[in-house]
Design a protein that fits this description.
Number of strands: 2
Order of helices and strands: HEEHH
Number of helices: 3
Strand order of the largest sheet: 1-2
Distance between the termini: 31 Å
Structural class: mainly alpha
Largest sheet: 2 strands, antiparallel
Radius of gyration: 16 Å
Length: 74
């Protein structure tokens, strides 16, 4: 595998993880916090795979099957 492709993949996964993370405002009794939404992260990855599949195959049926397989609504 090309090292550049792996670096891009890792960067994209980091971006998706950030999108699935929410900052929690600090309170009087606790500091700043973060919530990582695993379901949102999984959904973002499935959507990314679907978009990639659509670009590679140009076949919308494959994308619909991928969404159904993972239970992600369009």
């Amino acid at each position: 595998m090309n090292k550049d492709i792996g670096a891009e993949m890792n960067e994209r996964i980091r971006q998706l993880a950030e999108q699935a993370t929410t900052r929690i405002e600090p309170t009087a009794t606790s500091g700043e916090g973060w919530i990582f939404d695993k379901e949102k992260f999984a959904e973002l990855i499935v959507r990314e795979c679907a978009m990639f599949s659509m670009v590679i195959t140009d076949d919308h049926y494959d994308v619909d099957a991928l969404y159904r397989h993972f239970g992600v609504e369009e």
